[in-house]
Q: What sequence folds into this?
């Protein structure tokens, strides 16, 4: 299977509470936070790797995994990281974050998909900086592809169709997609038995989470192909979403520590009046 | 300005409460920009839901009935929603898994820009301004869209549910649009619904959430407390990942966003992604044996204790009245 994975780098999500907003509300300042791959995109890549191997011999790739990002030169670090983990080649579309919105990213990715003609496109369900949760759905519509958003499981069937379990409100919805198609992944796609390629034994279990690149692979990744494209060659440049200002949420005050259960019940009843 | 609300039904017929958040958001937008709102109901048997929705102040309720609308597949819904929606300037749904799946797809079809998971709408210089949480709720952005049609979803916990009025909107049938080629390559296989007698997380007045600490005693320990309080059960990601409870219990940045009157965090450390989903709660109670757990920094009442002792004791105390 040939799979295209879209990756974005974001400011360290585990420290998102350290973002600063200047008094004039002009921006969200992430200075001091490390750049990391968007966690859902890291999971998207892991899913793509699992779908192109047989599990037991993960070094041997059946098909191809191509990673693509839209971002400035520094985002090549993110792409090299993905190549070291097992992706075959990378594409960077040169752009600064302030030149991008959901529509532009979707249209640029559409162009890449049309050139590469993969069987499957995998994205994270959302980029955890903007929490926008729109590019995958927009891209699917632009391509006229069927999609499964918020995927927690993917099983490649004998016929080449994909059985996808989506986490929705109230349960899990199973869909069957016929490629070419698009999937956006949720957290549990990296559970041990979430993804099986046609070649993987159904009872094969992975380690929980994503794989890490061994040192020799990091060296080798420097030689894997990475091409750069101009944003203007793959999308119209008109932004249709813009931010007028930013604000911090109201801070919550820490309350009190009660001594025992009796005091807790008394406070909830008499002070908070919620019982 | 004309606004269209997309209603959410379960199994193609029953109206979901989530729809009421979209109505109240749309009513505010319509008030700000001047104009009315209509409600579009797609379902296999949508008639009863449409009749209920006729009491919510809409100019019209539009109904499209078709067997293919039993399950909410974006590929199947988007053509009709877009065909009807192209006569409007704003399309609104609630940011449930239904709205988040469908609406960006509709936006792309209509060349419209999309603002997801909005907490509020205001207006400035004749434009609607969508206030959206970003960075796991650690910032709000005021977003404007410049396309002729705009599409938004609403965070249910941030707006008050719309209430029934005395009005009676006319109900009009609209045709289903032809399927898109994408619809031919997606097949609904099953919905493994989590059955529960408890209130839905997003509607509950009280929520009892458990974390990794519960181990395989998740239900044994928390159910008596939830029963006693008439509460919904929630969980941290760690509890879900470990298989202690179903995935749709998850509260947080990637789970449900909740804002009950009373939230119990039991054996939950308070990671940033969990907090993102529950910090809007009115009163937060944390039970954790680690006095330095970050959850204590935002709880109103903290109890440093072993949960396996404290929760049963709490249940007894509540029972004793
Ligand atoms: C992209 C991404 C998205 C995420 N989204 C979410 C999300 O939506 N929701 C979410 O919850 N998490 C989310 N997470 C995971 C999050 O970062 C944390 O890993 C998770 O919330 C931790 O769960 P926990 O608090 O149950 O476990 P832990 O952090 O392990 O905490 C367990 C707590 O239990 C306490 N404890 C242990 N034993 C006892 C006892 N006997 N009595 C009392 N207390 C005890 C410990 O002191 C500890 O504080 C996400 C992570 C990522 C990367
Ligand atoms: N700048 C970008 N470069 C590559 N992929 C992106 C970019 N922005 C978003 N994506 C992809 O789209 C998904 C959803 O992003 P969003 O709609 O911005 O929340 C992400 O998880 C990525 O897979």
A:
């Amino acid at each position: 299977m040939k799979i295209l994975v879209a990756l974005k780098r974001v400011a360290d999500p585990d420290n998102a509470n350290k973002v600063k907003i200047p008094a004039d509300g002009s921006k969200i300042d992430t200075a001091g936070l490390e750049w990391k791959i968007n966690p859902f995109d890291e999971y998207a890549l892991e899913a793509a790797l699992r779908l192109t191997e047989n599990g037991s011999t993960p070094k041997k790739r059946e098909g191809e995994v191509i990673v693509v990002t839209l971002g400035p030169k520094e985002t090549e670090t993110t792409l090299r990281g993905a190549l070291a983990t097992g992706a075959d080649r990378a594409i960077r579309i040169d752009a600064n974050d302030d030149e991008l919105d959901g529509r532009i990213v979707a249209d640029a990715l559409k162009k890449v998909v049309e050139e590469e003609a993969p069987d499957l496109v995998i994205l994270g369900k959302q980029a955890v900086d903007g929490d926008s949760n729109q590019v995958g759905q927009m891209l699917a519509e632009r391509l006229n592809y069927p999609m499964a958003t918020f995927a927690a499981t993917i099983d490649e069937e004998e016929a080449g169709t994909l059985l996808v379990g989506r986490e929705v409100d109230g349960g899990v919805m199973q869909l069957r997609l016929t490629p070419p198609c698009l999937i956006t992944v949720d957290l549990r796609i990296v559970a041990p038995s979430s993804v099986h390629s046609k070649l993987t034994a159904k009872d094969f279990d992975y380690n929980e989470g994503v794989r890490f690149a061994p040192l020799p692979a990091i060296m080798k990744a420097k030689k894997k192909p990475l091409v750069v494209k101009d944003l203007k060659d793959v999308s119209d440049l008109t932004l249709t979403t813009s931010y007028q200002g930013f604000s911090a949420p109201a801070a919550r005050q820490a309350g009190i520590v009660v001594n025992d259960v009796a005091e807790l019940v008394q406070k909830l009843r008499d002070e908070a009046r919620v019982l | 300005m004309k606004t269209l609300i997309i209603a959410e039904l379960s199994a193609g017929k029953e109206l979901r409460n989530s729809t009421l958040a979209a109505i109240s958001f749309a009513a505010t937008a319509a008030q700000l920009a001047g104009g009315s709102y209509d409600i579009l109901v797609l379902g296999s048997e949508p008639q009863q839901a449409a009749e209920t929705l006729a009491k919510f102040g809409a100019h019209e309720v539009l109904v499209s009935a078709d067997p293919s609308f039993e399950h909410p597949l974006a590929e199947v819904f988007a053509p009709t929603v877009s065909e009807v929606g192209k006569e409007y300037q704003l399309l609104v749904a609630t940011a449930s898994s239904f709205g988040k799946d469908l609406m960006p797809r509709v936006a792309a079809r209509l060349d419209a820009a999309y603002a997801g998971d909005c907490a509020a709408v205001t207006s400035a210089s004749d434009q609607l301004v969508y206030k959206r949480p970003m960075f796991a709720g650690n910032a709000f952005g005021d977003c404007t869209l410049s396309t002729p049609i705009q599409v938004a979803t609403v965070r249910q916990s941030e707006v008050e549910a719309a209430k029934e009025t005395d009005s009676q909107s006319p109900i009009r049938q609209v045709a289903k649009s032809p399927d898109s080629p994408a619809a031919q390559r997606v097949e609904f296989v099953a919905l493994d619904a989590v059955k529960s007698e408890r209130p839905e997380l997003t509607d509950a007045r009280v929520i009892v959430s458990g974390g990794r600490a519960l181990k395989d005693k998740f239900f044994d320990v928390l159910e008596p407390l939830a029963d006693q309080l008439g509460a919904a059960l929630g969980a941290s990601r760690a509890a879900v990942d470990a298989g202690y409870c179903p995935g749709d219990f998850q509260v947080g940045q990637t789970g449900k966003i909740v804002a009950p009157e009373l939230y119990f965090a039991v054996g939950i450390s308070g990671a940033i992604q969990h907090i993102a989903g529950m910090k809007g709660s009115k009163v937060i109670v944390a039970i954790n044996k680690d006095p330095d757990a970050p959850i204590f920094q935002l709880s109103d009442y903290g109890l440093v204790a072993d949960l396996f002792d404290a929760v049963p004791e709490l249940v007894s105390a509540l029972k004793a009245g």
Remarks:
- Residues A 6-8, 38, 40-41, 44, 69-71, 100, 102, 105, 123-124, 126-127, 130, 132-136 surround adenosine monophosphate (ligand 2) (CB under 6 Å).
- Helices of chain B lie at 19-33, 47-53, 74-85, 97-109, 218-229, 237-241, 272-278, 307-320.
- Chain B is about 25% helix and 30% strand.
- Residues 19-33 of chain B form the longest helix (15 residues).
